[in-house]
Specification:
3 domains; 8 helices
Length: 203
């Protein structure tokens, strides 16, 4: 049995490929590029389970498409509803309390993801793309960085989804922060990397 988390990651990766085009096929050989941390067999086992769970259609020759239920699930994973934390305070009989909440009071707190302005996001994409070779990352990490840059750039075409931007930005930060730290001390243009580091710090 493959982990549910991996299957969710695959659904999200397929969604990034085809988005709202629910009748479009996605090549699993293209999707697997972003899954260097697992074996090929594990990836395809997960894809088979998604077909068996009727979340994907098997189109043959390594291509899949979303079923209606699969698209709904992927869409909800990519665009989750705001998180609401509901806290119940049992404070008993309190007179003249500064809390002023009353007995069994409820507090609703909505978590809102804030993201950098579009201009900063575009600048980040351009700077990393222009200086990517200087990071001297592995081929696998270079592919991952390029994938995240493409994700951010695609979001900038329309109103960006904060959840997707946050996820892509954090991935970029995790992949590059070690190399950027080294370059800040040795690079010919440390100012470029200081700018990139400050932009990544916004995630």
């Amino acid at each position: 049995m493959v982990s549910g988390q991996l299957k969710e990651q695959i659904l999200k990766a397929i969604f990034r490929k085809i988005g709202n085009k629910t009748n479009k096929n996605a090549s699993l050989m293209e999707v697997i590029i972003g899954f260097d941390h697992i074996t090929k067999d594990t990836f395809f086992d997960a894809a088979i389970e998604l077909v068996n769970e009727q979340l994907l259609f098997d189109r043959g020759r390594g291509y899949v498409a979303f079923t209606p239920d699969g698209w709904d699930k992927a869409n909800s994973l990519m665009y989750p509803a705001p998180t609401v934390n509901r806290n119940t305070l049992n404070i008993g009989n309190v007179h003249n309390s500064p809390i002023q909440q009353g007995i069994n009071s409820h507090q609703d707190q909505t978590t809102i993801y804030s993201i950098p302005p579009n201009d900063d996001l575009q600048r980040l994409v351009e700077l990393i793309r222009e200086h990517l070779e200087e990071l001297r990352l592995s081929p696998e990490n270079i592919r991952k960085v390029k994938a995240q840059l493409a994700t951010i750039e695609a979001q900038l075409i329309d109103e960006p989804n904060p959840t997707i931007i946050k996820e892509a930005g954090r991935s970029l930060k995790n992949i590059t922060e070690g190399a950027i730290g080294s370059l800040l001390a040795t690079a010919a243009q440390p100012g470029v990397w200081q700018t990139i580091q400050s932009l990544l710090a916004l995630f």
